Amino acid sequence: MPLSSSSKPPFADLPPAPKAAIKPFSDTRHGVTRTDDYAWLRADNWQQMFKDTSILDPEIRAHLEAENAYMDAAMADTAALQKQLFAEMKGRIKEDDSSVPMKDGPFAYGSAFVTGGEQPRYFRILRDGDPKDESLRVVLLDGDKEAADKDYFRLAGLDHSNDHKLGLWGYDDKGSEYYTLRIRDLESGQDLADVLDNTAGGGVWAPDGKSFFYTLQDENHRPSKVFHHILGTPQAQDRLVYEEQDPGFFMGVGGSLLDDFIYIDIHDHETSEYRLLSTRDLTAEPVLVAEREEGIEYSMTEGGDVFFILTNADDAKDFKIVEAPVTAPGREHWKDVVPHTPGRLILSHMAYARHLVWLERREGLPVIMIRDRVSGEEHAIDFAEEAYSLGLQGAAEYDTDTIRFSYSSMTTPSQLYDYNMATRERVLLKTQEVPSGHNAQDYITRRVFARSHDGVEVPVTLLYGKDTVLDGSAPCLLYGYGAYGVTIPAGFNTSCLSLVDRGFVYAIAHIRGGKDKGFSWYEDGKMEKKVNTFKDFIAAADHLVAEGFTAYDKIIAEGGSAGGMLMGAVANMAPEKFAGVIAAVPFVDVLNTMLDDTLPLTPPEWPEWGNPIESEEEYRWIAAYSPYDNVGKKRYPPILALSGLTDPRVTYWEPTKWIAKLREKAPDAGPYLLKTNMAAGHGGKSGRFQRLEEVAFEYAFAVKMAGKM
What we know:
By secondary structure, the protein is an alpha+beta fold. It has a domain at about 25-90 and about 435-705: Alpha/Beta hydrolase fold, catalytic domain (Rossmann fold), CATH 3.40.50. Helix content is about 20%, strand content about 30%. The strands form 9 sheets. An 8-stranded mixed beta sheet has the order 31-32-34-33-35-36-37-38, with helices on both faces. Helix 3 (about 80-90) crosses helix 13 (about 690-705) and helix 7 (about 530-545) packs across helix 8 (about 560-575). The radius of gyration is 25 Å and the shape is globular. GO terms for molecular function: serine-type endopeptidase activity. It comes from Allorhizobium taibaishanense. This is Peptidase S9. Pfam families: Peptidase_S9 (PF00326), Peptidase_S9_N (PF02897).
């Protein structure tokens, strides 16, 4: 365990840690009986509690508050450091920052923050107005005003109607991700009487601006129904357009740029299905495009008289783009447009009047591709750095040659460009400002490769100061996620500079379970191969030590959500290789959660982790690595776990039970700290600076463990 500069152990003189009551609960599945001593921490009324936290069982509340008090005591000596870190991070953010408005019809729409503000303001200007002239902006929705006097407030955006008269906006004021929808008159700034509760947030306007479509969350927090709401009518009278009967599927509703269709997107993590509703008849039943088939995914965008469809059908593991007539979009009419090329993973696509655009990944790096729809000529937008991140925003209009994208790297602040697909001219619209100053030449970014247990080369992106001595003496924050095919971008991160400026090496391990090296990279880190994710992360730590970037007693591991499961697993597998572990909203009680089909995400998650209810084999896969089930008498490093009381994705009781069991099974190691945000959910605090306070807290733990206070 690393020592602070005073050589005093970083967690000396702690008060006694809270001890959760042991109340054994036994469960037998597939002939295996497990006893869970802390199952009682799961509130039986969790569905209602997410909407009203005052009904939480007093015994559970008392335990969470005791954990928070213990955490406060353990981290008390970092109070000044947290303030310093927060001030540094805030100093790198332009307080009165503004987006570059996106043109749509007679206006251009954007968002901005005011100095000291936590929430965005949505505004518009005339289409050709000067976006830098703030006097031309008309504020449509002031997030700070709406959030006043609320402990938690998260906006779901503002979507204007086609005639630009009304705006549909949503908010969650509990952190439970039950959104309320309102309709704003964009001329007067007043909201209509319509109030829609328990939605998934957002919706899609009908072309006439008199109604919209939205998804409703059911009692188990799943978006299972699509409704059509006509302005001025009660929510109870909304027409049910489609109901998904399978609890294993997510559902969303969207629209086409040409406003010809409403898309109902039904999917889990490996199978998808679309239903289309023509806006020419809003009372019609949605039409099935291609019936769901296990393992086949597809997504759609309209291109005039054809649909362009991104799919992995016909063994196109890394995906291809096909087209089909708008009048006959079924799979039997699909014709290859961008064929499948192994190793070239197509991530997303967009269609415009004269061009087809897609974002692909080659050798771990993103590439934007453009095809002229008439000539068929293709070209890529080129970039020079060794590791970088791209964001493809596209355009709000169909008949355009100009799209928008963003570019950044670990050393290069974000740059926003407009790109003319016909002339290939790119125009720099904005460069991210760092008010406190940033010199890219002071930092070095690299991509190295760690050899995993089976010989696979795992990419690791590094950022460190140019003067950092690489002799094993530098502390390292090693970040990982590795699930759902999510790729962690090598983009600019102002917060991590506070660690790098203190001599840290900041590292991102691009482990299996993401899609960093193609779809097979994802497949090799899920279901029965999930252990590869954990072994890849440990291999990254081993490589960084072997190459002199750091040492085992200086590595602080960090991950959140599914990445928090990663943290729990590597702590069980190789506790001696980490000086500390930060697990944010960690998915650590995997087996119990996958056995509980009443939880919001459990049925849709079975294709990712396995279904231990139906399959003994899959039960045993999960049981073999589930962090909570594999806690043992080991020399664990100090662990900081963070959770949100109203989190519907990783429920508060998962990290709470985990910490309790760590204390029981390995009382002489740790310590184990739990911070539960009693007024937030999965994403933590909702304000932009409030979120920085949480990052500062996490980084203070890392600095403390690295002996850099």
